[in-house]
Design brief:
Rossmann fold, disordered N terminus, alpha/beta, hydrolase, AB_hydrolase_fold, single chain, three-stranded antiparallel beta sheet
Length: about 475
């Protein structure tokens, strides 16, 4: 016989163990949403905006300003709930691992790390970054071009060091950051969450894939962006992935896709809105995330291919300083120090360059009709970017538009590869890229947009003279 108290306790335990996180279903096919773009009159001077999307509806908002509204595409979904959750046994193992890293994440106010834990994590991450630097040194070899760029990188990091220290302190000790949440079984299948302090209602979510030349990428590189957006009511998930030589491009794309699946299927658990999930990538991360989108597009257009998440769950894609046609970039990278032999090793050989070039793949006669399945695409790029020329974003946006997709290329006059991502945010206040991201993410929520606009201005992290000098010596 079991006493009533023990029986009740047993039932409670069974209830807790049997609970599974419920993912919101993807929006129904055929539903229409709207993505707002700022008007030319609102755009700051010095920035060129190139719209390549067809059939834009201009809506007068009652004043002199005219706001462009781009309707979302109706996208068929091959989303498979069983594939998303996996088998019961597999999910049980995954669920237990995730909970160990995320129990304290369910409440923004709870959790945090002790000083000892923070120091331990700092030491662990410092060791990882050191390994990445040594790995880069090993693969690039010793040469004049590389030595000069390495010295420039050291001086560049020194100039921005005051900002790095402050961002690092926030990353390791803020209660709004939940680090190293497990999303998969492979090494470095982890992500960091940046949560807003205000938890009144579901928040939009940005799944961010960081850059790093496919060799030194790391989730912490997105901490400045995560801090900026979370302060304005947006949850940011920075997805880590295996780098070369631990993995080649195929595994990187697979890791990123798994991370996106985790965000899509668990957003509500962390206070996110499953109907407002955005995908973003920077530099190599923009390339990887674009590859994920195109690969998913091909799968969803095919027959009988189930996926763990659906393109219809992604409200829009933001690519920052990305390269989307490797056939045009392989020689350019060689002149910049990412030698051809190394780059081809990362990309699984010259024969795979086409496969991992999103701009080329969408033009394939067998898949080009599936381009309307893609979410609206916004590609941001600086015109003074010498690491990846801005023409890469322009051509990809043009190609998507010609094939029936919704795409735009936003050019920032005189901005380099790192200006938009590092130097500008360290100046404090609201920078151009941040304004453009927030205007798109909060476009259908005027109240949230007004609140974000009225948020306190971020303080300067680095003196202006050091930022200008950093831009001049940057090896990127």
């Amino acid at each position: 016989m079991i006493a009533n108290g023990d029986s009740d306790l047993g039932r409670k335990r069974m209830s807790r163990q049997s609970l599974l996180p419920v993912s919101a279903p993807p929006p129904a096919a055929g539903s229409e949403e709207k993505l707002g773009f700022r008007s030319d009159g609102d755009r700051p001077a010095g920035k060129t905006r190139i719209m390549t999307s067809p059939s834009l509806d201009l809506v007068d908002d009652g004043g002199d300003r005219r706001t462009e509204k781009v309707p979302f595409l109706s996208r068929a979904s091959s989303f498979n709930a069983d594939a998303a959750l996996g088998s019961p046994n597999h999910f049980g193992k995954q669920h237990r691992r995730r909970r160990s890293g995320s129990d304290s994440s369910l409440s923004v106010a709870s959790g945090g790390y002790s000083f000892g834990e923070g120091v331990g994590m700092t030491a662990s991450d410092t060791y990882l970054v050191t390994r990445l630097a040594i790995k880069l040194l090993t693969y690039l070899g010793i040469g004049y071009r590389w030595i000069t760029r390495f010295l420039a990188l050291g001086f560049y990091a020194f100039l921005l060091f005051p900002g790095f220290v402050q961002v690092g302190y926030y990353y390791f000790f803020s209660r709004q950051v939940r680090r190293s949440i497990v999303y998969g079984d492979q090494p470095r299948n982890r992500l960091d969450l940046y949560l807003p302090k205000n938890s009144n209602g579901p928040k939009p979510v940005v799944a961010f894939v960081t850059g790093g030349a496919w060799i030194i990428g790391y989730k912490a590189w997105g901490s400045l962006l995560g801090q900026q957006l979370s302060e304005r009511g947006i949850i940011v998930a920075c997805i880590d992935y295996r780098n070369f030589p631990q993995a080649t491009i195929g595994e990187m794309v697979k890791d990123a896709s798994q991370g996106i699946a985790f965000v899509c299927n668990n957003a509500a658990e962390y206070g996110g809105d499953p109907n407002r999930i955005y995908l973003m990538g920077q530099s190599a991360g923009a390339h990887i995330s674009a590859c994920v989108l195109v690969d998913h597009m091909i799968k969803e257009a095919g027959e009988g291919q189930s996926t763990s998440w659906s393109l219809s769950q992604i409200k829009a894609y933001f690519g920052l300083s990305g390269g989307y046609n490797l056939l045009h970039l392989v020689d350019h990278f060689d002149t910049r120090g990412l030698y051809r032999s190394l780059f081809l090793s990362i990309m699984e050989g010259e024969e795979s360059l086409r496969k991992y070039s999103p701009e080329v793949m969408v033009q394939d006669p067998y898949v080009r009709n599936a381009v309307p399945l893609l979410p609206p695409v916004s590609l941001f790029h600086g015109t003074a970017d010498y690491s990846i020329p801005c023409e890469s974003s322009k051509k990809f946006a043009d190609t998507l538009s010609e094939l029936g997709g919704k795409a735009e290329a936003v050019m920032y006059e005189g901005k380099t590869h790192t200006d938009l991502f590092l130097q500008d945010p360290m100046r404090g206040g609201m920078d151009e890229l941040l304004e453009d991201l927030i205007s798109r993410i909060h476009c259908d929520n005027p109240e949230a947009l007004a609140e974000a606009s009225n948020a306190h201005k971020r303080r300067r992290l680095v003196p202006e003279c050091m930022l200008k000098l950093a831009t001049k010596v940057s090896p990127f």
